[in-house]
TrEMBL record:
<protein>
    <submittedName>
        <fullName>Uncharacterized protein</fullName>
    </submittedName>
</protein>
<feature type="domain" description="PG-1098 ferredoxin-like">
    <location>
        <begin position="278"/>
        <end position="320"/>
    </location>
</feature>
<dbReference type="InterPro" id="IPR041497">
    <property type="entry name" value="Thump-like"/>
</dbReference>
<dbReference type="Pfam" id="PF22013">
    <property type="entry name" value="PG_1098_Fer"/>
</dbReference>
<dbReference type="Pfam" id="PF18096">
    <property type="entry name" value="Thump_like"/>
</dbReference>
<dbReference type="InterPro" id="IPR029063">
    <property type="entry name" value="SAM-dependent_MTases_sf"/>
</dbReference>
<feature type="domain" description="THUMP-like">
    <location>
        <begin position="321"/>
        <end position="391"/>
    </location>
</feature>
<dbReference type="InterPro" id="IPR054168">
    <property type="entry name" value="PG_1098_Fer"/>
</dbReference>
Length: 393
């Protein structure tokens, strides 16, 4: 770790050029010949990535950044803050520490945090940054986390793991056994050191596939940020054999939407109906969860079709997702499309519909944007329809 990058003049230069194009800066002469130009450019690029994602790091003096890829792959502060709300206790060990954003927020909830990182350079950077952030209850352990677990030889309240896909696993179906560390293989050993494990995975992991590889899963948290699913969190507790609770969260600027249900719990069948005054589209976390029947039942809404995953009601209800007022419902045919939508401007969504958004736009010359929202879908009578709506939220 080269601390010369912390020279006050260099730090001022980095801050002053945070909004400049790296490709343009790269053509300039290095004003600091004692430090590699590429190192300074890397700091500018990584710090720029942190501006919105990691505002505390961005606003703290003398932070050293690893590669921009590390910043892109790390948790955002908003998702890390939510993650920390899940845990409590005296001690936590993070077996895959990375840039340490999660551990910073864990340290606000847990007395002592151990940050394990196999990359020595990254471990040193994170140790330095924790000192700048005054996170005094986090200890950094460079090296293999399994060896660190053995050396420390203590019972932890929580083990946290964010396994990464091995390079040779690219292109395959996402399985936990193809990641490092191999959590399914090491699970029994981990439970010798704790009674509670929290595993972070990418949204790409199929929930049923994860459940087939893991045991003692008590809760699965699906975390979306501004309606984009960012991560799945698998909460495991030793000897737990009960039903799995699904907890969905969509973190928005003004509020947080949440919806919970029990996986595979028997419920009454959903009700179906034709479009009424309002239609509802679940947020991306609920869509990932597969709780399509549960959300409709909970909010007492009718589904338009078994496979459409759009809901409707005569009166407005609060809902975790987008809500629209139906201005018109037309059959999908040439006459109606020419009358209402051809050569117009509209936002288009397809649900259980045979054509793509791109093809629909091309066929009917519909421009993107505007205040009109159209759902191309299938109703309960298997008719292809278009809902022409205005957005409420």
């Amino acid at each position: 770790m080269d601390l010369t990058i912390l020279n006050p003049e260099i730090q001022s230069f980095i801050k002053a050029n945070i909004d400049k194009r790296i490709s343009t800066l790269a053509l300039q002469k290095n004003p600091f010949p004692d430090v590699e130009w590429i190192s300074i450019l890397n700091q500018i690029e990584a710090k720029a990535k942190a501006k919105d994602k990691l505002p505390i790091w961005f606003d703290t003096k003398n932070i050293i950044y690893p590669s921009k890829i590390s910043i892109e792959q790390t948790s955002s502060e908003k998702t890390a803050l939510h993650k920390a709300s899940i845990i409590a206790g005296e001690s936590l060990i993070d077996l895959t520490g990375g840039f340490g954003v999660d551990d910073y927020y864990f340290s606000k909830k847990v007395k002592t945090v151990a940050h394990c990182e196999i990359n020595l350079e990254l471990s040193n950077i994170v140790k330095h940054n924790f000192e700048q952030l005054e996170a005094k209850n986090i200890t950094c352990y460079p090296g293999d986390s399994t060896s660190t677990l053995e050396t420390l030889n203590q019972k932890w309240d929580w083990i946290y793991i964010d396994p990464s896909r091995r390079n040779d696993a690219k292109g395959k179906v996402f399985l936990l056994k193809d990641c490092l560390p191999n959590v399914p293989e090491n699970l029994d050993y981990y439970f010798e050191n704790t009674n509670a494990i929290l595993i972070k995975t990418a949204p790409l992991l199929d929930i049923s596939a994860g459940l087939s590889e893991l045991k003692h899963v008590k809760k699965i948290h699906i975390i979306a940020l501004e309606n984009e699913v960012k991560e799945l969190l698998w909460e495991l507790h030793s000897n737990y054999t009960g039903k799995v609770q699904i907890k969905t969260v969509n973190i928005l600027k003004e509020k947080t939407e949440s919806f919970d249900f029990i996986l595979n719990e028997e419920t009454k069948p959903p009700t179906y109906g034709l479009p009424q005054k309002y239609v509802y589209e679940p947020n991306s976390a609920i869509m990932k969860s597969g709780g399509f029947d549960q959300v409709g039942l909970f909010y007492n809404l009718d589904k338009l079709h078994k496979h459409s995953h759009i809901y409707t009601s005569a009166s407005l209800v609060p809902f975790p997702g987008r809500v629209f007022e139906v201005e018109n419902c037309i059959p999908y045919n040439k006459t109606e499309m020419k009358t209402y939508l051809q050569n117009k401007k509209a936002n288009i969504t397809t649900r259980n519909f045979q054509d793509t958004v791109e093809n629909i736009r091309k066929k009917w010359k519909i421009k993107e944007g505007g205040d009109t929202y159209c759902f191309f879908t299938t109703d309960t009578n298997n008719n292809k329809i278009v809902l022409i709506c205005t957005k409420i939220k």
